[in-house]
Structures are given as C-alpha cells and as structure tokens.
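Recap quiz, item 2
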Amino acid sequence: MDKLLKLMLEGEALSTQQMGEVLGISKEELAKELKSLAEAGVLLGWRPVINPDVDQSVVRAAIELRITPDRDGGFDKLAQRVSKFDEVESCYLMSGAFDLLIFVKAKSLRDVASFVYEKLATINGVTSTATHFFLRTYKQQGFLIEQAASDGEKLNYSP
Amino acid sequence: MEESINPSKFVAKHILDIPRSGIRAFFAIAATMDDAISLGIGEPDFVTPWHIREAAIFALEKGKTSYTDNLGLKRLRNEISKYVEKNYSVSYNPENEIVVGVGVSEILDCTLRAIINPGDMIMYHEPCFVSYSPSISLAGGIPVAIKTRPEDNFSFNIDEMKAAWKPGCKAILINFPTNPTGGVASRKQLEQLAAFVKEKDMLVISDEIYSELTYEGGHTSIASLPGMRDRSVFIHGFSKAFAMTGFRIGYACAPKAIIEGIMKIHQYEVMCAPIISQECAIEALKNGKSDMEKMRDQYMRRRDFIVRRFNEMGLKCHLPSGTFYAFPNVSAFGMNSMEFAKCVLNSAKVAIVPGSAFGPSGEGYARASFSTSLQNLIKAADRMEAALDKLSAGK
C-alpha cells in the first residue's frame, strides 16, 4: 500500500505538516501526493470521526432495500440513483436476504420516514424497504465511544 | 534503649555487590518530572490486543485458576512447538523439550543456573540487556563481555569473540535483535559463530525475544543451523511481539536433558507460570499474527523517523534492524552518557536511558525507545533538537 495512505490509516491523527516530517518529504511533495491519490479515486475526502450520539439534531437509520435489477444496468443503475440522495451517507450492495443496505441521516424520525415512503419506496424497481433506527453508538469507525482516559495506560516501569 | 543494628549485615555479600538496574536508577529521576516525554520504557506502547485480553476473561469465567504442569500447559507447549518450527525452522518435542516460565528473565535465570558450575565463564556481547551480567554472577558464573560496535551494526565480530575466549568458557549468551542496540546477526555470522562454538565445545543460549521485530534481512535462529540444535537453548517470550509484558510469559526450547535441569529450578522457584497468562499465550500464538505485523509496521515507521531526526540533530545513529530501540552516539557533546541523559532530561524534558546502563561498552551512547506515538516522537525530537542547538551555541 502507498506509504502516505498507510500513514493516514494507521498513523494517529497527524497534521499534514507532521505527516511530511514522518515521511521525510516536503510540504509541496506531500500536497502533490495527496492530490494524485485523490485523482486516482483512492482518497475520496476527509472527515472527522464524530461521536454520533453527541449530535442530537440528527437521526440515523440503516435501511434494507430489495430491488429488481434493471435489464441494462443490473443493480448498479438503481444503486447509483439511491446513492445520490443527500440523506444517504453510505450505500452497499449486499449478499443475502436483501439487496442494498443504505445508511441514512436526517433531521428527525419523521424526515427519515418521509424519505422512505416518498422517495425510496416510490422509485421504480424498489420492491420493499425495512428501516432500522440507530439507538446508541458503541464504536464508530474504529473508535470506541466510551473509553476511560486511563484505559491502556502504561505504568512507568521498565526492567 | 534498643541496640542499634545495621540490617545490611544480614544481606549476602555477593548481593550487596550487585548494582541495581541502571534503567531503574535513571527512571527514579525521570519520574519526578512533570511533562517529560519518556523514550525510556522497554515495552510496547500498544495495549495487548483485545482478543488476547478477552481470552483472560474467558479463562477466569471458566474457573481456570489452578496450577499447571511445571513445564506449562500441554496445549501451550504444543502451540509453541508449532510456532517455533514454522518460524524458526527448528523442532522441539512439546513433551519434554519446552518449558514455559515467568517471562524470559526467569527462564534465562533458570537456564544459567542449570548449566553453570561455580566459576564457569559465560560469554556475551555488550551493550546488552541489564540482567545478563548480574544473572550470570548470581548463578555463580563469571561474565565475559565482548564489545560490539556501530561499524558492525552492533552485531559481533567473530575474531574479537575468538580472542576473548579462554579455557573455562562454557557457553555464549546471544541476543539478536539486541536490546539496547537493535543489532542483528546475519545467517553468515551465525554460521561463523556456530563453527566457533562447536570447535570450543560450548553451548549457545539465544535470547530471541525481539525476533519478530526484525525489519530487514529476516531473522535466523542459531538453533536451526546444522548441528546446533543440541547445543542451543532457544529462549523466547510474548512480551514484545504480542505486547504482553504484564502477562509475564517466556519459554525455553532445548534438548530434554537441559530442559529437565531448567524445569527443576523453575519447579522449586515458582512452580509454574500463571495459568491465565498461559491461556492468553495460546490465544496469541493461534490468532495474534496480524496484530503483531501491524505493530511491527508502526514501529518501523517510527524508527525511520526518529533515526533520521537523531542524525539531523548531530546524534550519530545507525539504523537498528530490529527491536524498538535507537542507540545514538551521544559523545559529540562532550559528556558521558549519564550526564548527557540528565542534560536532555533537564533541558528538553525527554527521558532517554544512558548507554552505560547496558554495560561499560554502552558508554558514549543512549537508548531511545521508539515504542511511543508518532506525536510523542515528533515532540521529543523537536525538543531535543532545540536543546542540543542551544548547547552547541553555548560551547
């Protein structure tokens, strides 16, 4: 894997300047590498990982969708169409009992509901939906939500 | 009035003569300082992977709270046998050629006591881990140190080793990759050593605790070389590779007669290693490989960074091919290693271990552990550089 990419994935939250220092490259070189990663479609963007439970103004849900594959485009055409809604944060084609799994964010329960019955369910090819609301988050993208600051603290002892 | 007594008269003379670990002595000073960044600790900064910790909980829930076989749980010895054969190309019978103990330190101590007759000489390369010389002395042996140098990447020089040999040298204790230098020994060097050991009819005790943390060139165990299995004690443990220091599990693999000797001492000394820790060790060997590789990747990235920064700030430092220690030469600043470490602690608030803690051959160097976050390493390097610049300017 690309050295820079690996550093971003495993190397703590470093500033771009620190990343350059660790990799031993200049600010300009780092910017160039980041740009080429973005251009290659590897690096899609930057997002902080936020504790979802802190933000009381949004509601999240996972929605299972069954869809009828299109003659021309298979599942892709419909999946891409569903993905385009701003409410949809992620969208995956799944194996198993349903076809698409989407993660949805909206301002309220009612907004999610209306998104489902007004937008999703009315799309030609969507045969059924099942909506599951998030109640509480325990781990978000690799980060534990409730972790005491002292967890894993090492005592200052050495042989 | 009570008669005043000096209780130290009750302490054995040879114990009074043994100094405390130099690392601990230095840390007593470092611990008093707030906001100091420690590059001194000789243990992984990672917490033991969760699946291994979870195995401890599971073992407790199952009521695994008893003694085990003196040699260790049979299931653990089976796993060790498989692991050592697969990764070190030498096979040991789990029935009677493997013993599990309380960390490599205990296993090494038992090994030395099992082989040393009073006055036997034990060769070892230095700078080395703090316990080698005292453990040899405590077992009634005479330590014979051979200096290693940065020009050999802190591997040994076979000619110097031959020159240091004298009648009465019974065994040679090696540790590659080496704490504190990060030195490694190539297969070719180990072959030279093997030939020498055979010629002098010696035993090799090989402490390979850092072997998974080898970054370049791969690791060869001397026990796997032709004709060496029966004159080697292979010693390994879980602390470094699996970030399990507090579990205290180490083991020795050797021919049956030697294991029997080690086991007898271990039996009367501690009976067996804690069963919970042994259960966790099984989990580590079965499912710990990917965690270990992830940690190794991170150490390597940190190593490349800190070694480059040391060299940039005028601390000449070779690239360690193993371990999580950098061992820069600090003599350019006109201080001995203890003075230098104190100076860095006071002026940069960074704790490093003076090289002299690792034997007289470590004088002129310091050990900096890169087993800490990149954030910490960056901060430590910046602070040290600023302090050293000031020092040079003031000269």
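The mean pLDDT of chain A is 90.
The interface with chain B takes residues 6-7, 10-12, 14, 18, 21-22, 24, 151-152, 154, 156-159 of chain A (CB under 8 Å).
End of item.
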